[in-house]
Amino acid sequence: GPDPVEVGQGTTYTITVTNQGSAVGTGIRIACVLPAQQTFVSGGGATNANNSGQNVTFAPLASLAPGARAVWTVVIRANDTGDVRFSTVMTADQLTSPVQETESTNLYR
């Protein structure tokens, strides 16, 4: 997402998953955690978003062909200042452990 973000303004985080393997990826799940200084506005993309407090989960993506990519977005609003971390975790049937990415954003007045 864009950095920095002014309090009261929104920004969009984009989550892109590319299947770099030679087999179809299945059961791909994306989960995000918003820091306390951010409020969920909307989410969408390859599958539908569900929001509960600071947690955003997307419906599982049944399959992703080799070389294909899927994109999800999370729109937030900054409601307080801080140097915050937006965290995303991906799991899939073929992964032995989750893949985690963190995006740092400075929220200012």
Describe this entry's structure for a reader.
This protein has 109 residues and is an all-beta fold. It has one domain (5-94): Immunoglobulin-like, CATH 2.60.40.290. The chain has strands spanning 5-6, 10-18, 25-33, 38-45, 49-52, 55-58, 61-64, 69-78, 82-91, 99-108. Strands 1, 3, 5, 6, 7, 9 and 10 form a 7-stranded mixed sheet that branches. A hairpin with a 2-residue loop joins strand 5 and strand 6 (55-58). The protein is elongated. The two termini are 18 Å apart. The model has no long low-confidence stretch (mean pLDDT 96).
Portion in helices:
under 10%
Helical run tally: 0
* The number of domains: 1
- Rounded mean pLDDT is 96
Q: What overall geometry do the principal axes of the alpha carbons give?
A: elongated
Main features:
Immunoglobulin-like; 7-stranded mixed β-sheet; about 110 residues; mainly beta; single chain; elongated
SSE arrangement:
Blueprint: E1 5-6, E2 10-18, E3 25-33, E4 38-45, E5 49-52, E6 55-58, E7 61-64, E8 69-78, E9 82-91, E10 99-108
Parallel strand pairs: 1-10
Antiparallel strand pairs: 2-8, 3-6, 3-7, 3-9, 4-8, 5-6, 9-10
In short:
The chain is mainly β. Helix content is 0%, strand content 64%. The mean pLDDT is 96.
